[in-house]
Amino acid sequence: MGSPFTCNSLPDTNSIASWSSSSWYILLLISILPFLTLTSAETSHCRTSCGDIPINYPFGIDDGCGSPYYRHILVCSGLGHLELRTPSGRYPIRSISYSDPHILVTDPFMWNCLDGNNFRPTRPFSVDTSTHFSLSSQNDYLFFNCSEDQYCASYTSVFWRNVDANPPGDQVPEYGIRVDFEIPVTTRCLQCQDTAKGGGTCGFDTETQNFLCLCKEGNVTTYCKDPNFSPHGKRIGVIVGTASTVSVAGAIGIGAGIWYLRKVRAKAPVTHGVVSNENRVF
Known about the structure:
Layout lengths: L12 H6 L2 H22 L6 E2 L2 E2 L19 E3 L5 E5 L2 E9 L4 E4 L27 E3 L3 E8 L5 E11 L8 E5 L1 E5 L5 H7 L7 E4 L6 E4 L4 E2 L13 H34 L15
Antiparallel strand pairs: 1-2, 3-4, 4-5, 5-6, 6-11, 7-11, 8-9, 9-10, 12-13, 13-14
Helix pairs in contact: 2-4
């Protein structure tokens, strides 16, 4: 990362006036490059992991990936930490199971054994019912310092994890909240993912939320190897066109900024859905 911008980093009036036209072209090119990089990033595949947690359908951490039912639900930090965004806040994700669809999250504010008699104030945990999430019946909750008005100062959640590979079997308790989710299955998504038909990624149009099959060469509404559709679709054109427009706008902005600088120098001496009681801890 470059040095922070300061007024002292600006050249003086004499050096600005002495710049040749080729120098302005170099500055303009450098300023446009980030927008060209944005174009290639927009057309790349969806990320398939965050840290060591796999990201598969119906989820996506890039907009337009996965199912629109779970849009903007998962957040991947720059350090590779995955979080679940809910109406009550963001919570670290420990694991995601797709064979037994559920997410295991932790609430850093809930009570644990190390806290002893220190019952820290906590916020109610809830999930967005519009995203096909539900709190699992395998969770056991303990509430502390509850009043007659049914207000509790703190809580903890224990999830019973299966030890045997083939349940039912032995189970051990672990701190955490199991959140079950549904996997929307459609014929178009299955065809899109079929390796014999191109092995695309299920996604959606970010404007209309209609289904899209994301392929290496572009986006289609069927599957990647469909002979009736060209993979160089409208969406790619919109992305490139938008980036080109932004690039031109950036160039105009740079020119205006340079003009303003020369003029001044010359005069100078970011809720989610509805929360129901069934999906709220307390």
